[in-house]
Amino acid sequence: MAVTIGVARESAQGEARVALTPETTRKYVAAGARVRVQRGAGAGAHVPDQAYADAGAELVDGDALADADIVLCVQPPAAHAIAGMKPGAVLVGALQPQADESRAEAIRSHGIVAFPLERLPRTTRAQAMDILSSQAGMAGYKATLIAAQLAPRFFPMLTTAAGTIRPSKVLVVGAGVAGLQAIATARRLGAQVEGFDVRPETREQIESLGGKFLDLGVSAAGEGGYARQLTDEERAEQQRRLAEHLKGVDVVVCTAAVPGRPAPKIISAAMVSGMKPGSVIVDLAAETGGNCELTRRGETIESGGVRIAGPLDLASMGALHASEMFARNVYNFVSLLLEGGGLVFDWDDELLAKTVWPERGEDPAVVP
């Protein structure tokens, strides 16, 4: 019997993305799966229902998840929706099960096999399934455009009849995927760009995009490509040097984040007070607490003439392309589960074994 894949409208406020596109619908159908899509599921990403139907999906007015063997989502369904899924169903998306106890309990108690893709191992093989990277790229791009809109100045250098306008000085804090995309976007807009990261190995990446690496003399190289925690002395020296440097910066785009943890506080209120009036800070890390001490989640405020924006759902602002990337990531992962039109779990595959939640052995009744 063919595997049934179900996709419902996203329920999270402000979420415009969708985990399935007509492109990936065709691929699932070609793999022998039956695809059921709730009407309007792709509306936020500008994907009409007819495009899904043309790709081979069945459109449903009501519940698209109840009889699904595999449920695809961007953000997790509500606990009651998970409870309505059939026992043993597979749930794939950015699930963050441990962030909500009712959601975690619904997954456990109903025997749902959850694959939170944010848990995916950071390996070369997993790159095509990496939702964190694909969505961070859109977030970094949009954050830079927000900064350009809020800044009371041009980004590029201009030579005009009224004189020469110098380029804006943009500092991007954090050189992960979002930060590198922010650097590239600011450079395309003509700004003079610097990138700061406590991991020294990012210097080459920053410079390859035309940015200048800001070296504050503090290294926090850690394991797995993430930064280690700084000592108190290292952090104090970093803060002192950064505060001095910020006095000459026009725009700061903050992107430093560690999955599963609050965003590190890098820019203090005292640093902001030392910045020039008219300066702008866009804090991409606002959703997890912000890199700036003054950031307010989902708000744009002003402090001493400095505008500080804490935008949310940045990837949703580019929902069409963000959905295309997300859906491809999801398809590449789900294809590991599809074999001969059926659902197969190869627990010798580390991508499955290390992504599944609860972990195998933690609750044997849950995972087949």
CATH class division of the largest domain: Alpha Beta
Tally of separate domains: 2
Give the SSE string.
Answer: EHEHEEHEHEHEEEHEHEHEHEEEHEEH
Helix content: 25-40%
Structural class: alpha/beta
Proportion of strand residues: 15-25%
CATH topology of the largest domain: Rossmann fold
CATH architecture annotation of the largest domain: 3-Layer(aba) Sandwich
**Low-pLDDT stretches:** 363-368
Report the sheet with the most strands, covering strand number, pairing sense and barrel closure.
Answer: 7 strands, mixed
| CA distance, first residue to last residue | 18 Å
Mean pLDDT: 92
User: What's the CATH H-level superfamily name of the largest domain?
Assistant: NAD(P)-binding Rossmann-like Domain
Looking at the structure, what is the overall shape?
elongated
Name the strands of the widest sheet in spatial order.
11-10-9-12-13-15-14
* Radius of gyration of CA atoms, rounded to a whole number: 22 Å
EC number: 7.1.1.1
Catalytic activity: NAD(+) + NADPH + H(+)(in) = NADH + NADP(+) + H(+)(out)
Function: The transhydrogenation between NADH and NADP is coupled to respiration and ATP hydrolysis and functions as a proton pump across the membrane.
GO molecular function, one term: proton-translocating NAD(P)+ transhydrogenase activity
Model description:
The protein is elongated, with a radius of gyration of 22 Å. It folds into two domains: 4-119 and 319-353, NAD(P)-binding Rossmann-like Domain (Rossmann fold); 136-312, NAD(P)-binding Rossmann-like Domain (Rossmann fold, 3-Layer(aba) Sandwich), CATH 3.40.50.720. The two termini are 18 Å apart. It is α/β, with parallel strands linked by helices and 368 residues long. It is 29% helix and 17% strand. A seven-stranded mixed β-sheet has the order 11-10-9-12-13-15-14. Strands 3-2-1-4-5-6 form a six-stranded parallel β-sheet. The longest helix has 20 residues, at 131-150.
